[in-house]
Design a protein that fits this description.
about 120 residues, about 50% strand
């Protein structure tokens, strides 16, 4: 089974950028449908981006053009590049892996493997 570990979160001002990493061990990420989720205090966990095994990607409308999900096969690591960050992007960000492909909207219950999360805080 795959184990996931996120890193790269932090505090930035509005308009800034961050790159989140999700390093995997135990299995090859190319075998999984990968998703990035976020959860703000008092809100439900929301899927923001996904990458399928063929490299195709999908995003929710609010992050299109600002966020990019990518996979480094050599490092077995998935990234979420986040640009033009807004205060509403604040939350705990999680990467997750599923053994079946899904589309937007991502449903957390469909993903069987999760990292522990990394906090992103965007100030205005």
């Amino acid at each position: 089974q795959v184990q996931l570990q996120e890193s790269g979160g932090g505090s930035v001002q509005s308009g800034g950028s961050l790159r989140l990493s999700c390093a995997a061990s135990g299995d090859n990420l190319r075998s999984y449908y990968m998703g990035w989720f976020r959860q703000a205090p008092g809100k439900e966990r929301e899927g923001v981006a996904a990458m399928d095994r063929d490299g195709s990607t999908t995003y929710i409308d609010s992050v299109k053009g600002r966020f990019t999900i990518s996979l480094d096969n050599a490092k077995n690591t998935v990234y979420l590049e986040m640009n033009s960050l807004k205060p509403e992007d604040t939350g705990m960000y999680y990467c997750a892996a599923a053994q079946t492909s899904y589309g937007i909207p991502l449903v957390p219950a469909d993903f069987g493997f999760w990292g522990q999360g990394t906090q992103v805080t965007v100030s205005s």
